[in-house]
Amino acid sequence: MTRESRDTEITKAAGAGATAAVRGRKKRKNKENKTRTVRANTLLNDHPNPHYANNKIKTTKYTLLSFLPKNLFEQFHRFANVYFVFIALLNFVPVVNAFQPELALAPVVFILSVTAIKDLWEDYRRHRSDTEINHMDCLVYSSMERRYVEKYWKEVQVGDFIRLRCNEILPADVLLLSSSDPDRLCHIETATLDGETNLKQRQVVRSFLDLDCEFDPFKYHSVIECEKPNNDLNRFRGYIVHRSGRRDVLCKENLLLRGCTIRNTEEAVGIVIYAGHETKAMLNNNGPRYKRSKLERQMNVDVFWCVIILLVICSFAAVGHGLWMFQYGDKRPVFDVLSPQGTNLSPIMSAIYLFLTLIIVFQVLIPISLFVSIEIVKICQVYLIHQDMDLYDEETDSHLQCRALNITEDLGQMQYIFSDKTGTLTENKMVFRRCTVAGVEYSHDANARRLAMYQEMDSEEEECMSHGGTLPRRESVTSHQSARVVLRSQSTKSHRRTGSRAEAKRASILSKHTAFSSPMEKDITPDPQLLYKVNECSSQMDFMRFHSQPMSQLSSDLSDIIDFFIALTICNTVVVSSPNQPRHKVKPSWKSEIKQVSGVTQIFYLITNRSSNKGCSSLLSSPSAESTLTKLHEEQSSHLEPTFSPVPPCYDGKASWNLEEGELRYEAESPDEAALVYAARAYKCSLVGRLPDQVTVELPHLGKLSFELLHTLGFDSTRKRMSVVVKHPLTDQITVYTKGADSVIMDLLKPLDTGKRQKKIICRTQNYLNLYAADGLRTLCIAKKVSDGEYACWLQCHLEAETAIQGREELLFQSALRLETNLQLLGATGVEDRLQDGVPETVAALRRAGLQIWVLTGDKQETAVNIAYACKLLDPEEEMLTLNADSQVSHVSLVCKSLGLSKKKQINSSSSLSSHNTSPFLVHRLGLVIDGRTLAYALDKTLEDKFLEVARSCRSVLCCRSTPLQKSMVVKLVRNKLKVMTLAIGDGANDVSMIQVADVGVGISGQEGMQAVMASDFALPRFRYLQKLLLVHGHWCYSRLANMILYFFYKNAMFVALLFWYQFYCGFSGSAMIDQWYLIFFNLMFSAFPQLVTGTLDKDVSAETLQRLPQLYVNGQNSEEYKPYMFWMNMIDAFYQSLVCFFIPYFAYADSDVDLFTWGTPITTLALFTILLHLGIETKTWTWMNWLSIIFSITLFFTVALCYNASCPTCFSPSNPYWTMQRQLQEPLFYLLCLITPVTALLPRYALIRKKIPPTLQKTEHRRRHCSVGKKTSGAPTLNSAGNNPDFHIHPSYPCLRAGMGNCFHSGATNM
After folding, report:
1. Could you tell me if 865 and 775 are in contact, meaning their C-beta atoms sit under 8 angstroms apart?
2. Helices (H), 835-931
3. In DSSP terms, which residues pair with 708 in a beta bridge?
4. What is the mean pLDDT of residues 1096-1107?
5. CB–CB of 925/879 below 8 Å?
6. Could you tell me where the beta strands, DSSP code E, fall in 394-443?
7. Distance separating alpha carbons of residues 322 and 67, to the nearest angstrom
8. Which residues, in sequence order, are bridge partners of residue 178?
9. Looking at 405-409, 501-505, 875-879, 1168-1172, which range is the least confident one?
10. 8 Å CB contact between 822 and 785
11. Mean pLDDT across the stretch 569-578?
């Protein structure tokens, strides 16, 4: 109805009806590719939406027909697989083949088959999941039967009507048309989408709100125009056109998304808008992201060098063969290989053919099994990390999640950490601490003592747990409030710390039903003075209401106090429900106009990271905005006086609720909202109900009052404030209540020259805000504005902004700004966010490990600085650089001054270091603090280099008031400019952008949903677990993989070199003295298992030592385990060992009459023994699995050799391997060679390692003895060097940081 009036005005403004029709047709043509039209499927013989996707989902990659070609196509994207297939196919060419073609295919087929089977199994699991989902039941309206019938999810079509019941999961994206709720609301749980367990509400489309009878789909004749399918969970735009021509706007509040669960609503009906793969949930399901680790990039370079080496040795051998053939001239040797036509080949052609033959023979130089082995080792490493109980959080019943399997080694090479503050370093449990109202500060001392009691109980519980005792019983309780706190704390925390795990898990599950509602957050002790004033104000207002007195008789201070608490109560999106039935319908005992729950729900900071844009996508319009405008015109014509009515129309003194105040459950979307609502409830100003068009509160002496909700301007990261426009039930005045960051609200207040009282309040409040921030409290300002005449004009302009097509977001932003000006400051709040357990210790350990930690937060600067000192990010002894600039010019000046100071510090540090003859490891005792506005200047392309130069010279950096976009830009700047490894960690959706930009993203599974976790590579329950994840598991993963890769290169090069030396004795003919079965399966079977075990379980340093000496982490930061020269050293060592393994048997059998394989089989055996002993030298931690794998490899080799030599007398004529190994085992010379050759081959490596020990062995042993003594005498070691010196630097040449020297810290460690 109101929509028609607005459409009429728009039509008149546009001109004549014909012109509007022409424009409409043009507009439809331009937008036909951007919108979709949905009609109801109520026709019997026609489907009006034939081109849209059905609801059947298919997440599998293959079908029975496409599996083989598609899987092979995907595997051939890896260059190594293409190379090995090419080599195998080349072996089928008779003129260049080196092995039996079928046998040469075996390794490639094995590798491809293993990968294909793995992919097939994963795809089969996806297929089973798809089948289960597609065959779930739902109620769909049948046009033929005129009723709802059960159908599978996969049978649902766009345009179908679906009946939804409580606790059912939505099968598709549905537009809500009807609800059994008397307020036409539908409650949903979106945990599967964003991880948030608190209830959200959706409302019926506006034109169906007043539907009295049951919704009949057959009578539905409307057409829906909406946007094309997209993955933006936070937006839905469109309109519904009725048969009468009237149009109603559609928004995200009308859309129910696939995967959500219906709660607290008995029944709802909707029409399917998006189905199947076009739903927003499916469009957001992109799967895990693939990242390439730094070690993998280095490895690819060395693989390239292996290709170069292969080409060089093949070219050398080809040239040698051509020269060797050339010396015979026209007299061809009897063993010469003829061409396919039977003619003699020229030396040049012989060399070319030999080159291709040697490519086949020497193909092992490129490690085909390396890539598969790395994947296997990484999976095993992830499994071991998951099994670490030190990374399990019993309180939340959650453990570490590894969502990216291919970058585990990057955890050991991090250099910069970018961390969020709220929820990451802190608990994200917002506790109301203090407030100031009308310039008067209320310290809430009793509430401070209550919080201190919680902290004391926590420390006592931890102390009791450390001594194996139980919780002490508190007998001396001074008040009922304290007793209640103690009992509740004991009933919850004792379960978490001293009870069984099942009890802890049950308590965690119960607490998750409502976020931000722990006893510490809820049970607020009011300030007596403020409580007295609230009661006095309420009693006076009740008296004036009864006597119909105007509001002007109420004093300004008392008026500000009551408005302050009204703002805390209604300026939010909190949902009210009952804890007795947490996920069922809450029914009042009487039916009235006072409603229970809200239809204005906002989801901000979601996966798609829309919050960083300036557009006001979170500006929520009241669903009755147009009707509000109509009412305003009517009221202005009646000229009503703003006086108190004896009994307001919205208030019924006889009405009583079935729910008592203490039974109400507040489900908030952020901890700040919950803290303020609970604070207001402590002063008897309780939120008891919310509707799309009204909010019900209960005030002392006044009872329940319903504020008509005219408009809501939601919170976002750009505006940093939230406002509600309500009609006051006692004064009939239109009032704007606003809360937000002090940096924003202070700029929106009335000019100071408007009154002395307001000026005094502003000055005092600002002083208190500074004190709150200095105490580490999060601050919010509360303001209001009476907007009777202005609101009607503003609403008219705002409606035009809402209907704009171009620049809609910017118009809405400016429209909101026009309303939120000339505000009257009411007061401010201080909310405490406690540090998580172990954060200071973790930060200190990470800094000692050489990691640079930057904190990027949206909090006030003073608050962030205070928290930074508390968590030891900033040191009181450090000099702090503060960059706060109002313009780009002043920013440049500040940066230049800071740069000069940092250079001066660097000169002083360098001279100090040189005078003490210490290692040049510079640590500048500087800290940098920069606010959001200055950061915007610093990130400019022309200034970012100078800012980065200042920042990198500081020991710690703190960015305050930063937006999500700025966070990601800072991470990208450091990563790209400094070429360093970066890690970003956060808990909220506002951290998603920087988590995705960093090399490694870590999400904290906190209280703000799972958006950060779903975007991360690793998920942690608590920040403190980052220490062990990086310093222990990161170090191990990097060390294991780096040494395994180098060992692979060495092993393959050593085996290929054996064949290369033989070419000097066979005319470079490409012949091999080793049987082709051994050539094919040597790397694939005989030597594969020990290196997998070592790569998975090896520990160069124990976990205790790594955490006690964080400085050892520098090993991975500097890539000490995998330097470029190490590849060449391994190549040289491989060639030397191959010389020993080749020539000792050569000279041993020089004058004997043994055949080729009788000489080649001992060489193969000696090579295997040497390779395994080499691995033994490189192994630092021996376990029973290491011994078993080596024994298994040797046993497997001899078993295959004995069986093969016994069963294959003439398999490959003219060679005859029959009984070769059996004869060798009877010869004493064979055993002598097995003893002498490996020792001689490995002697230089062993001697080289021993030679590197003396310069630092004494220091290492001294450090180890101190660690062991400290462990025996006390809980912490007494270290004279690294342990207590934050500036301690370990030189890269220390053997404790090099491969093979882990035992200098622990000897004989056999634990897994």
Report:
1. no
2. 839-848, 861-870, 888-916
3. 694, 727
4. 90
5. yes
6. 398-399, 401-402, 416-419, 426-437, 440-442
7. 46
8. 269
9. 501-505
10. yes
11. 83
Instruction: Specify which residues 436 forms β-bridges with.
Output: 441, 828
Distances (CA, A) of 3 to 205, 638, 799: 13, 23, 11
Which residues are paired to 256 by β-bridges? 174
**What torsion, rounded to 10 degrees, do the Cα atoms 824, 826, 828, 829 define?**
-140
Ligand-binding annotation for 715, yes or no, is yes
> Which residues belong to the active site?
420
Per-residue model confidence as pLDDT tens digits over 241-254: 988 888 888 888 89
Contact 321, 354 (CB under 8 A): yes
- 778 annotated to bind ligand: yes
Strand residue runs (E) in 108-160 = 137-142, 147-152
CA distances for 690 relative to 617, 629, 640, angstroms = 22, 21, 27
Secondary structure (DSSP) of 765-813: HHHHHHHHHHTTEEEEEEEEEE-HHHHHHHHHHHHHHHT-STTHHHHHH
Tell me the sheet residues that pair with 1122: none
Q: Give the C-alpha separation, 1082 to 460, whole Å.
A: 61
For residue 1182 the two structure tokens come to 């021996």
Has 739 been labeled as part of a binding site? yes
Question: By mean pLDDT, which of 37-51, 510-524, 582-596, 1127-1141 is the weakest?
Answer: 582-596
| Structure tokens belonging to residue 427 | 């608990």
Distance CA 747, CA 763 (A): 13
Question: Which residues have a Cβ under 8 Å from the Cβ of 399 and sit 6 or more positions away?
Answer: 386, 391, 392, 393, 1021
CA atoms within a 13 Å half-sphere pointing along the CA-CB vector of 856: 28
**975 marked among binding-site residues:** no
420 belongs to an annotated ligand binding site? yes
Residue 198's φ and ψ, nearest 5 degrees, are -75, 150
Is 941 one of the annotated binding-site residues?
A: no
Residue burial 394-425, b: 16+ Cβ < 10 Å; e: rest:
bbbbbbbbbbbebbbbbbbbbbbbbbbbbbbb
Task: Assess contact for 688 and 705: CB atoms under 8 A.
Answer: no
Q: Which segments of 932-1039 are extended strands (E)?
A: 956-959, 982-986, 1000-1004, 1018-1020
Task: Tell whether residue 673 is among the known ligand binding residues.
Answer: yes
CB contact at 8 A, 205 and 248: yes
Helix runs in 888-938, H state only: 888-916, 932-938
Write the DSSP assignment of 185-248 as a string of letters. EEEEE-HHHH---SEEEEE--GGGTT--SPP-GGG---EEEEEPP-S-TT---EEEE-TTS-EE
Does 1096 show up as a binding residue in the annotation?
no
Pairing of strands 956-959, 852-856: parallel
Structure-token match 């300036």, residue found: 614
Q: Give the 3-state DSSP-derived string for 1193-1242, with helices as H, strands as E and coil as C.
A: HHHHHHHHHHHHHHHCCCCCCCCCCCCHHHHHCCCHHHHHHHHHHHHHHH
Handedness of CA 257, 261, 263, 267 (dihedral sign): positive
| Confidence grade of residue 1293 (pLDDT, cut at 50, 70, 90) | very low
The counts of H helices and E strands in the chain are: 42, 35
Cα–Cα distance, 860 to 833 (Å, whole number): 13
Give the pLDDT band (50/70/90) at residue 942.
confident
857 is in an annotated binding site: yes
Nearest to 802 by CA among 255, 232, 248: 248
Structural tokens at position 907:
């000169």
